[in-house]
Amino acid sequence: MFESSVAQPQVKKRLFIGLLLTSLLTIVGLTLLLWYLFFQPATIIQKAVLIIFIGAIILTVLVIAFGIGGIVFTIWRAKTINFLQPMMRISISLLFPVVVGLGRLFKIDIDKIRGSFIEVNNQLVKTKRLKVRPSQLLILAPHCLQKSSCPHKITNDINNCKRCGSCTVDELLKIRDRYKVNIGFATGGTLARKYVKEYKPKAIVAVACERDLASGIRDSTPIPVLGVLNERPFGPCFNTKVSIPKLEEAVKYFIEEDYRGS
Ligand code: SF4
């Protein structure tokens, strides 16, 4: 359901997965090349160091390979493989900077890569079929959803909003009230982390741009995050918007049926 609102999801997911595999092959290739060029062991100590080095590399590559395999299999079969979850997380956190580096090298739009990662993440989260109580769900939204001219600043206290309906904040508060979930408007990563610490959510629905969502999703691991991209009709970080139907779909995805508002 959540996926249906996204254009060409298969193409988007393939980009990130393809770059993950390319990153893995690049690391293996570079390691072999460096070893061949610079390390010709002569003494026993050098040989021992070499064996430990190669062992560590093989172990890391195996973990990453199983992690990538787990991601592909999970998306392909729409089924979670629990024992591969840690390896999937390690692969993403280790290879994400390499993926971005390769993207720069191949002149691929970095936001496209982040968008693809968000698609992959959302698909992996959905295969877990996790259901939580409303009090265990946190909606994290950026403060730039608030109309810039509004004098009632909501970052300190969301209830400062007078619900005038001039911006999306009112709609988000309606969702909060309908589903009795927690909500936090953050100015950045520090405030977002504070909300996570305060509410201790078991699941998060996050609204943000590609850059903030991609880093927020990785920062929140292992808490599952469904990411919803914001819309920027006036450019970044200014009077942004979010599709309320998409947001509500994500909230409903996590909330147990008995607790859903009508
Ligand atoms: S809904 Fe109205 S009062 Fe609330 S944040 Fe937006 S502009 Fe301000």
How are the SSEs ordered, and which strands pair?
Layout: H1 9-38, H2 44-77, H3 85-105, H4 110-127, E1 137-142, H5 168-179, E2 182-186, H6 189-199, E3 203-208, H7 210-220, E4 225-229, H8 244-254
Parallel strand pairs: 1-2, 1-3, 3-4
The structure holds iron/sulfur cluster.
Iron/sulfur cluster is lined by residues 146-147, 150, 152, 154, 161-167, 169-170.
Strand runs, count: 4
Bound ions, cofactors and other small molecules, one mention each: iron/sulfur cluster
Strand content: 5-15%
**Radius of gyration over all CA atoms, rounded:** 21 Å
Side by side, the strands of the main sheet go 2-1-3-4
CATH second-level architecture of the largest domain: 3-Layer(aba) Sandwich
Number of helices: 8
CATH classification, class level of the largest domain: Alpha Beta
Give start-end ranges of low-pLDDT stretches. Answer: 1-11
Shape: elongated
Distance, first to last CA: 18 Å
Structural category is: alpha/beta
The SSE string, one letter per element, is HHHHEHEHEHEH
The domain count comes to 2
Question: Which keywords apply here?
Answer:
4 strands, binds iron/sulfur cluster, 4-stranded parallel β-sheet, Rossmann fold, 262 residues, alpha/beta
How would you characterize this protein structure?
The protein has helices at residues 9-38, 44-77, 85-105, 110-127, 168-179, 189-199, 210-220, 244-254, and strands spanning 137-142, 182-186, 203-208, 225-229. It is α/β, with parallel strands linked by helices and 262 residues long. It folds into two domains: 3-126; 130-259, 3-Layer(aba) Sandwich (Rossmann fold). It has a four-stranded parallel sheet, sandwiched between helices. The structure holds iron/sulfur cluster (SF4). Residues 146-147, 150, 152, 154, 161-167, 169-170 line the site of iron/sulfur cluster.
